[in-house]
Fold this protein.
Amino acid sequence: MSDFRNNLAKIKARGSTKSGTHHWWMQRLTAITVFFLSIYVLLFIKSNSNSDLTTIILTFKKPYNILLFALFVPVTLYHAMLGMKVIVEDYVSTISLRFTIIIALQLLTFITIAAFIIALFYIMII
Amino acid sequence: MTNHRPTSPHITIYRKQISSVLSILHRITGAGLFITVLLIIWNFVFWVFNKFDDCCLGLLKHGLFKPFMILVTFAYFYHLYNGLRHLIWDSGRWFSIDAINVSGWVVVIFSSLITILFWTL
């Protein structure tokens, strides 16, 4: 049973997406940024893989480490969110469900970033 | 309004090619890495807020987790190098069939090599 709406009316009613290129460009920009930051993260993991816990914490507390991880996590999760948005848009047909899932994922990502930043503060003061 | 009419077969009958397989693998590794990064970050957050209780961090070094971590690193390197391939396409290069096939195999072989190197060096 169709909803008897004119296709043009449906398209117009959905409203403007403002700019399609923003998503595309931010995906590429964050990809390159994550590439460089993750080189550092991988080196950090590799060089600390055999250290004991206190050494790892002491190394992590250095300001350059804190900064680089504070940059790495939000940018990576932002890049991931851009990708997940496209995946959900591709596979979920119902508009209301798609809308809800995308907002829920964005909320989850945002909360994760906030929790990580607070954990970094916690590490700094301990 | 869900459509219950049958559709003609597509992915079940079409031969898998390097282009299509790598494309869907890029998406799958991306989604998988998203979930993995979320898990690792929350693991880290709970570790910090539990006064650095060693319980969960040690889990990552456990023998049973190693294959999973190897898979995660392969997913990361594969997504990285296929992503570079996407960026090369964005610059307008390497769109010919031969270039796509060759670059596809290069990505798979190179990411496997780097994964092995990462874990053995």
Chain B has a mean pLDDT of 90. Chain B touches chain A at residues 1, 27, 30-31, 33-34, 37-38, 41-42, 44-45, 48-49, 52, 54, 57, 76, 80, 83-84, 87, 90, 118 (CB under 8 Å). Chain B is about 70% helix and 0% strand.
